[in-house]
Amino acid sequence: MARLDALCFDAHDPADLARFWAGVLGWDPADDPAGAALTPTDDTGFRIRCLASDEPKRGQNQIHFDLTSASAEQQEQTVARVLELGGRHIDIGQGPDADHAVMADPDGNEFCVLPAGNRFLADCGFLGALSCDGSQAVGYFWSKALGWPLVWDQDEETAIRSPHGGPKVTWGGPPVAPKLGKNRLHFDLAPDGDPAAELDRLLALGATRLDSEQGAADRTVLADPDGNEFCLLSR
Questions:
Q1: Can you tell me the distance from the alpha carbon of 234 to that of 232, in angstroms, rounded to the nearest whole number?
Q2: Do 155 and 196 contact (CB within 8 A), yes or no?
Q3: What angle do CA 175, 87, 100 make, to 5 degrees?
Q4: Per-residue pLDDT tens over the stretch 147-160
Q5: Contact 1/192 with Cβ under 8 angstroms?
Q6: 205 contacts 223 by C-beta, under 8 angstroms
Q7: Is residue 35 packed enough to be buried (19+ CB in 10 Å), middle (13-18) or exposed (0-12)?
Q8: Residue 233 domain flag
């Protein structure tokens, strides 16, 4: 089995992006040889890594954060903090009547600040969900890959969550947007046992191995059934 070690952002300025998300989430900064990292101060079971990249952003990201609010005042405070730290409001077609704030971090990565009363994320913390564009099949894949149970499976929409808590990971089902190059966000998985055996298991579940410049001695670059890149660490 593998565990989700980190959610990785490609970043033009890793230190600046890590500073932004540390301020928004209240997580602790940590050293990272490839950029900058944050460790959670809540029940989120994975780190955030910001990795140096010169690649341009192409279209909307396949993954975005949904941040929760306990009250209308907290939603307003979160939005104000985002703006103070260098984020901004963006329009992705949500319309003037939307009750959630659609925002972007300094690198243009989209995320949402949800209003109070979201029942689906009622038992989650401030980082309520990693909301993903993806098929039902990819939700099933990640459930098996991480050993996280499905907590939603209706109308081709799926969601999983660690048995230890933390955010839900959701997939919206069809239509899935076409892939416009390498994703700016990806998962790093760490094997609990033999890395070679874990690689074989992931391939049997439907992953494919990629030839990529991301590849290094300490990782294998793979893609899930929707073609989204992720890395299996060798340690």
A1: 7
A2: no
A3: 50
A4: 999 999 999 999 99
A5: yes
A6: no
A7: buried
A8: no
Q: Which of 24, 49, 23 is nearest to 36 (CA)?
A: 49
Give the range of the structural domain holding residue 73, as residue numbers without chain letter: 2-171
Amino acid at the residue 29: P
> What pLDDT is attached to residue 151?
98
Is residue 9 situated within a structural domain? Answer: yes
**Residue type, position 107, single letter:** D
Quickly list DSSP for 165-183. Answer: ---EEEE--SSPPPP-SS-
8 Å CB contact between 176 and 133 = yes
Burial track 82-107 (b if 16+ CB lie within 10 A, e otherwise): beeeebeeeeeeeeeeeeebbbbbbb
The verdict on whether omega for the bond into residue 106 sits within 30 degrees of 0, i.e. cis, is no
Q: Specify the CATH number for the domain of residue 112.
A: 3.10.180.10
What pLDDT does residue 213 have?
52
